[in-house]
Design brief:
The chain is an alpha+beta fold. Helix content is 44%, strand content 20%. It has 5 helices and 5 strands.
Length: 142
């Protein structure tokens, strides 16, 4: 089974983060610049929360808040679900499905080592399935 660590080793470990006092506008600008849809909120190298495009739509736009004035700490998800490096693809997918999340930080002894997206996990799962199908086909056809 593929692990979170193996996916990060392949895709890279870039982490894009802002401090809790940064504005929502800064978060959205960073997402646009990096072509990502979530930004971690960190303070002193500790994960404090996550802000996603979904948070922006629901907690800023629909709430009538000003993105240039609202700090991310007001709209971030503070209780962040995370995976450890040894978690399998299936375990990560189960975690994300349980809370309808599309981003999963990976923490190793409290340190953020990367972020997995639902797309990363689905791609890894498809590779696993293709490998298994190929193995079964080879076994059957001899």
């Amino acid at each position: 089974m593929t692990t979170a660590k193996q996916i990060l080793d392949e895709k890279g470990r870039d982490v894009f983060a802002l401090a809790p006092g940064a504005t929502v506008f800064e978060a959205i600008a960073l997402m646009a610049e990096k072509e990502i849809s979530a930004v971690l909120i960190m303070e002193d190298d500790r994960l404090k929360g996550i802000v996603t495009e979904r948070d922006y739509a629901r907690k800023v736009i629909l709430a009538g808040k000003a993105s240039r004035e609202t700090p991310v700490r007001e709209v971030m998800t503070a209780k962040v679900l995370y995976a450890t490096p040894e978690r399998t693809v299936d375990e990560c997918l189960a975690l994300m499905t349980d809370i309808n999340a599309r981003h999963l930080p990976v923490l190793d002894n409290g340190t953020v080592t990367g972020v997995l997206s639902i797309g990363d996990l689905v791609s890894a799962k498809l590779r696993e399935q293709r490998f298994l199908i190929d193995q079964l086909r080879d076994y059957i056809t001899g």
